[in-house]
Amino acid sequence: MSELASGSVSQATTLVTIDGTQIIAEVGGSPLYRELKLGDHGPDVVTLHGLLAARGMEVAVESDTFDRQTLAAVRALRLSLGAPAGSTFGPEYVAYVPPTAVITSVRVSVGDVVTASAGIFDLAREVRSVTLRTADGSARLDQFEDAATSLVVGNDSLELKSVHLDDKDQAALSAFIRDRIADGSIVLDDSGKASGLSLALAAPIRVGTVPTTAVYSSPSGALCVFQVDAGTYLPVRIEDVIPSTEVGVAYVDRSLVGRNVQLRVSELDRKVLDLCG
Asked: In the CATH scheme, what is the code of domain 207-276?
């Protein structure tokens, strides 16, 4: 048996050579399940035509009929694969590979005895694109946009320059997720969504915390806390409240650390609240 490499699989690619005969990839389509011969019809004949075309043979790709053009191509393909001369083509010369799959590991090596039913490689779904979203479906990841970030899955992590991925980071992220799918750390649902991933900033953001009851939102949309100084209330504008995972807590700019603020803005007079703008 010849060596088999891991990676993406294309239609009619040679996967292994067993006893001098190449076994090629049948990627998607209707699986070959019978020995096909002149005059046969069916969706598996369309699959055969796809294999022949992928190997450079001239055939009517969309046809579901094994005709004389197919016969000539099959005879040429058998010879090119190192198979005995013949006029039929069957499933013994192919290995079915699901669409968008990649080979993640090879179970056998040169010299191993391989039976017809033996599994010779492990597959995982190919990751072609990745979209990062928060668990509630929101697309807001503001704090990660221009900062070095770690994607964490269990005990494994991947360092990214930011959530805006260049081609290099996109390739690294796709490979990372593909490997986690292969080892079972990530499970995709039927729509291709996965949960259980987390993002962490490589360098933590230093923030202050206040109770959410201390943050006032004015009719104009301004956000304020009110600093208490000698019995007077001074509005302090907040440009943004960083989302918090703690119930009842809001993260605010660290410049507010050490200041005394009104804990419940609902207790303040309207004239005071109007100072927020």
From this structure: 2.40.420.20
